[in-house]
Amino acid sequence: MEAMLLAEEKRLSCSDFSALLNSEAFHVSLLACSLEVVMADKGSPWPTLTFPWILSILKLKAFDFFKVTESFILHEPLLGSNLIKHLNQIEEQVLESLAWTTGSPLLTAMEASYPHSDPASISSGQQQKKSQPLNLFLRKVNQLAYHRLTSLCNKLDVDEVVRGHMWTCLEQSLRLHWQLMKDRHLDQMLLCAVYAISKVVGKEIQFKQIVTSYKGLPFASAHVYRGAPGKEQDSIIGFYNKVYMVAMKSSILQFCTKQGEPAHSE
Q1: Closest CA to 224 of 248, 198, 192
Q2: How high is the pLDDT of residue 128?
Q3: Contact 189/145 with Cβ under 8 angstroms?
Q4: Which of 40, 45, 65, 195 has the most CB atoms at less than 10 Å from its CB?
């Protein structure tokens, strides 16, 4: 903990950590990181209990957990490469979906910092002052989204120009329409951006082909495209038609290469 506090003191030019040290979420997050490391290193006595079960057991919010993980990784000297990889994989789960659930402090922070759905409307100085953890979180979400888009586009053999449009569309969905992420998964935005842009530029890739390629990626998750049984809107096509297109239509149309509008997916 001392190394973490010294690093924060240098980064923030602040030596008063009374609020942090009095924060229950901070200490519980440290405990969660420590338990995850021990179980990953020694083997869990309950093999079926994997992350994020520890968040439920400790009643810890994923976004609060995220605030500690990076410092823990950087300043815990005994972590080996396998344990760092384990914590990074856990962090990805937080970035892609766990922190976006109803009741998450992330959503509260987003509403407070970006009430107009556009972080660009707030100066960089204000953003830094308001919430450094939030800025770090959003930057990491963008990095993860870009990496996953690149992986999927490589599988689909998408050319550089079109994948550039896909990235712009994906980035705008996360920045201008971040409410789409509530109780959803980053990869849903990814699949929808790929389909929508391929369609409007006249190089349509069927959803079936996109999903098939997605399934072959190491980060693929079945519930991203299947949804809940019997709930059409929860499937990737239902989400695209009934939710995504409603919010993203104007953003997508800017890439249209011919007269008309992007049709709904069949």
Answers
A1: 192
A2: 46
A3: yes
A4: 65
Q: Which two tokens stand for residue 234?
A: 């929860």
7-13: long-range contacts (C-beta < 8 A, 24 or more apart)? 7/71, 7/74, 7/75, 8/71, 12/132
Give the span between the Cα atoms of 201 and 21, in whole angstroms.
53
Is residue 68 within 8 Å of residue 29, measured between CB atoms?
Answer: yes
Alpha-carbon gap, residue 200 to 250, rounded angstroms: 12
Which of helix, strand or coil describes residue 159? coil
Query: Quick one: the chain helix, strand, coil %, rounded to 5?
Result: 70, 0, 30
Indicate the pLDDT class of residue 132, thresholds 50, 70 and 90: confident
| pLDDT tens-digit map of 137-147 | 999 999 999 99
Report the Cα 50 to chain-centroid distance in Å.
19
Between CA 142 and CA 33 the distance in angstroms is 24
- pLDDT (average), residues 20-27: 75
Q: Cβ distance 187 to 214 under 8 Å?
A: yes
When the pLDDT of each residue in the chain is averaged and rounded to a whole number, the result is 85
pLDDT digits (tens, 9 = 90+) for 86-109: 999 999 999 999 999 999 999 999
Measure the CA–CA gap between 223 and 226, rounded to whole angstroms.
5
Separation CA 187–CA 220 (nearest Å) = 8
Q: Which two tokens stand for residue 7?
A: 């690093």
